[in-house]
Structures are given as C-alpha cells and as structure tokens.
UniProtKB/TrEMBL annotation:
Protein name, as recorded: 2-oxoacid:ferredoxin oxidoreductase subunit beta
GO MF terms held by the record: oxidoreductase activity, acting on the aldehyde or oxo group of donors, iron-sulfur protein as acceptor; thiamine pyrophosphate binding
PANTHER family attached to this UniProt entry: 2-OXOGLUTARATE OXIDOREDUCTASE SUBUNIT KORB-RELATED, 2-OXOGLUTARATE SYNTHASE SUBUNIT KORB
Cross-referenced SUPFAM superfamilies: Thiamin diphosphate-binding fold (THDP-binding)
Gene3D superfamilies cross-referenced by the UniProt entry: 3.40.50.970
Keyword RNA-binding: no
CDD domains according to UniProt: TPP_OGFOR (cd03375)
Chain ranges of the Thiamine pyrophosphate enzyme TPP-binding domain: 49-196
InterPro entries: 2-oxoacid:Fd_oxidoreductase, THDP-binding, TPP_enzyme_TPP-bd
Keywords: Oxidoreductase
Tree of life domain: Bacteria
Record-level GO BP terms: cellular respiration; small molecule metabolic process
Length: 269
C-alpha cells in the first residue's frame, strides 16, 4: 500500500499548531508501517488525551482514543485478548509519565509486547502550556512563570530501569531515525519505548525564548549526538540518540499462555 492509504485523509488538515513536531512523528510512523508491509488490520493504535494523542485520529488503523494517562492500560487489555495484533501507543509527557506513570513502569516491568511512542515536547500544549514531568529544571511555563524547580525524568533511564527490553531515543530533526527506530520497536518481541524529542514553538519555545520551529529543530541537531560518538565523549552534556536497550526476555502474553496451559492441564488431570 502507498503511504496515503494508511491515513484518514478526511480528517485533514490536522489540528496541530504550525511548526509542531508531532506531524513529523506521524510521517515517521506511517513510513515505518509502510516499510514493514503491514496490513491495516494487523495494527491497533491506542492513545489517551493531549496534542500527541490526536495522532490516532489521522491513521486508518483500528484505533482507540481513551482516557488521559490510561492508554497503556487499554492497550494491555487489547494485547492480552488479541496477542497477534501489533499495538502502538503514542503518548505525550503527561499520558506517559504524569498521570500515566504508574501504567508506564508496570507495562515495562511486565514486558508486554507493544510499542510506547513517547512524543516529548516538554510541555502540556493542549491545555495551555503547563510544565510537565519532562520540562526540566529551570524551564518556564504558564504554571512556572518564575522557572520550574522540578527535576525532569529521563525517559530512557526510567524505561530501562523499569524493565523495558527495547529503549531508543531520537528527535524530529532526524526524520530517518524516527522511522527506523519505530520499525525496530514494532518488530521487537517485548515492551518497546521510543522517545522522540518534538518541538512545541507555541508554548515551550515561546516561553523559553528558543525561537521558532526552525531554531528549535536546529537545537535538536546541535545538542544531540549518536550513542558512543566522538562528540559524546568530548561533550557529555549532549543528548545521546540511538538504541540504549535491546534484549530478549520472556514476553508477557507468551508467559500468560503457559499459565493457561498449566491450569487446563491441572483441571484435566
């Protein structure tokens, strides 16, 4: 199928602000699915509430637009009932790590096979520019006009510590990486996390005087580097991109089937 066949074109133009990076994530996601050659009936996308969560309305897959922070809980139910489906869960800062934080760490701990796509723009864009768990110390938001004193989560470290078996990071500037990492995450048999740094010029960029979309994209280019690069060794302050964790561990649905088999055998015995 062509890329456009995976889109619900009747819902365009999209609702994202001019210069928002989430459209680039949608582009990378669609191209990843197209390269994998998947049927639309093989995919379920589950989202919660927020700018990032609107992505589920633009794709022509099976989709659920659910409650704020509960996307992974709904996705877990889908995966357990239909383990043959590829489940993709796009989330923003709050969906993933504020109200949804408990679901995130336990989905990682269980290693249930789904792809958590964390679209990190460091702000709550849909509700007015409040700071989020990923905003970081010293940033400015509508709820932190004199600067934020909360430390931010590191998505990669948190996902790795919680037990995710595939953990990666990239930015919307690195468009080919977005598509490539999503492909690998979907193919991985376990809980996969792909963090994509995405710009929000409307709130985060404006409040923190980072310029417009072009300047914010330039920042992603200048302030990130590949894992293990010479630049990373010379400047530890650079944000590293790439695959941080990729390991095999028993997948939850497979292990659950074994429990069912044992129970059935015990009943018959």
């Amino acid at each position: 199928m062509a890329v456009k066949d995976y889109l619900r074109e009747r819902f365009f133009p999209h609702m994202w602000c001019p210069g928002c990076g989430h459209g680039t994530v949608l582009n990378g996601l669609i191209r990843a699915v197209e390269k994998l050659g998947m049927s639309k009936n093989e995919i379920v996308m589950v989202s919660g509430i927020g700018c990032s969560s609107r992505i589920s309305g633009y794709v022509d897959f099976h989709t659920l637009h659910t409650l704020h922070g509960r996307a992974l809980a709904f996705a877990t139910g889908i995966k357990l009932s239909k383990p043959e489906l590829n489940v993709i869960v796009p989330m923003g800062d709050g969906d993933a790590l504020a109200i949804g934080g408990n679901h995130f760490i336990h989905a990682a701990r269980r290693n249930i096979a789904m792809t958590a796509l964390v679209m990190n723009n460091r702000i709550y864009g849909m509700t007015g520019g409040q700071y989020s768990p990923l905003s970081g110390y010293g940033t400015v938001a509508t709820t932190a006009p004199f600067s934020n004193i909360d430390q931010g989560f590191d998505v990669v470290k948190l996902a790795s510590a919680a037990g995710a078996t595939f953990v990666a990071r990239t930015t919307v500037y690195h468009v080919h990486e977005v598509s490539d990492l999503i492909q690998q995450a979907v193919l991985h048999d376990g809980f996969s996390v792909v963090e994509v740094l995405s710009q929000c010029p409307t709130y985060f960029g404006r409040h923190n005087r980072l310029g417009g979309p072009v300047e914010m994209l330039q920042w992603f280019k200048d302030q990130t580097t590949r894992i293990g690069s010479k630049a990373a060794a010379e400047n530890p302050e650079l944000i590293q991109r790439g695959i941080f964790v990729q390991e095999d561990r028993p997948e939850y649905c497979t292990e659950y089937d074994k429990v069912i088999d044992k129970a059935m055998a015990a009943v018959k015995g």
